[in-house]
Design goal:
alpha/beta, binds iron/sulfur cluster, 6 strands, globular, Uracil-DNA Glycosylase, subunit E
């Protein structure tokens, strides 16, 4: 299928709701295309619909969805201001992992959603959606670090459902979400070519204005897109140190099965 034939998100949603391209169409109650703002800066990607999502045809409407809404509220957002989608649009029976064939059949929809939304930041929720961008990587190692893949900026976070099963995961997820506004700000600054504020200098100078003895620099000239992108990537690489001690590997199975990491006692400092 030529996915560029989908001109907008509504066309994708209509196609998904009537899709029979894989065996999952036989058991679903409703397909779940995803929902949110067409102008969203943030795209959240989960694994696939669960029982509640299948019933309602909407993503993240069960207990994990309620926690996701709390997480969004903690950074001043509502679900209507972001876009929430899943890797696979129909619920696999008994919430089993989708098969490779099912994933291959469905990926065209998410691919086109990403193209049309062109989000500033993609937040992957859990191991499964992390694997779309970084196959085989551990969510406990990858979480909380911004990375670039194919010209997109990816910020992996544990799946909200992981906090429902194991309370100790909650603070880790909350902490990673709390960094999202700073990540967006950093991306915005680096894209615009503005100087990057030094957090240490800002702290030490308190409310005093910063005066420079140096001549004022000339206004920055527009950079070639490739150069800006390279600069952004370089900046992100500089601050992608792992936040948790990597003493033990824990790689959960499906997102709905608990993921556990020790809450970080380190100060989160992406930038
Ligand atoms: S899972 Fe995707 S490919 Fe399969 S029927 Fe649903 S929408 Fe179509």
């Amino acid at each position: 299928m030529n996915t560029s034939a989908f001109n907008n998100l509504q066309e994708i949603a209509l196609r998904v709701k009537n899709c029979t391209d894989c065996a999952l169409s036989a058991d679903r109650t409703n397909a779940v295309p995803g929902e949110g703002s067409e102008d969203a800066k943030l795209l959240f990607i989960g694994e696939g619909p669960g029982q509640q999502e299948d019933r309602q045809g909407r993503p993240f409407v069960g207990a994990a969805g309620k926690f996701l809404e709390e997480l969004l509220a903690s950074i001043g957002l509502t679900r209507e201001q972001v876009f929430i989608a899943n890797m696979i649009k129909c619920r696999p029976p008994q919430n089993r992992d989708p098969s490779p064939d099912e994933m291959a059949a469905c990926s065209k929809y998410l691919d086109r959603q990403i193209e049309l939304l062109n989000p500033e930041l993609i937040v992957t929720l859990g191991r499964f959606s992390l694997g779309r961008f970084f196959p085989g990587e551990s969510i406990t190692r990858a979480r909380g670090k911004v990375r670039e893949k194919d010209g997109r900026f990816i910020y992996p976070v544990m799946h909200p459902a992981a906090a429902l099963h194991r309370q100790e995961n909650r603070s880790v997820i909350v902490q990673d979400f709390s960094e999202i506004p700073a990540v967006l700000e950093k991306l915005s600054q680096t894209r615009s070519g503005a100087p990057i504020p030094d957090p240490v200098s800002q702290e030490s100078t308190s409310a005093e204005p910063v005066h420079s003895e140096s001549p004022q620099p000339e206004a920055p000239q527009p950079e070639a897109p490739q150069k800006v992108e390279a600069a952004v990537t370089e900046q992100l690489d500089m601050f992608s140190a792992p936040l948790l001690p990597q003493t033990a590997e824990f790689e959960p199975e499906p997102d709905t099965i608990p993921e556990t990491v020790a809450p970080s006692t380190q100060q989160l400092s992406l930038f």
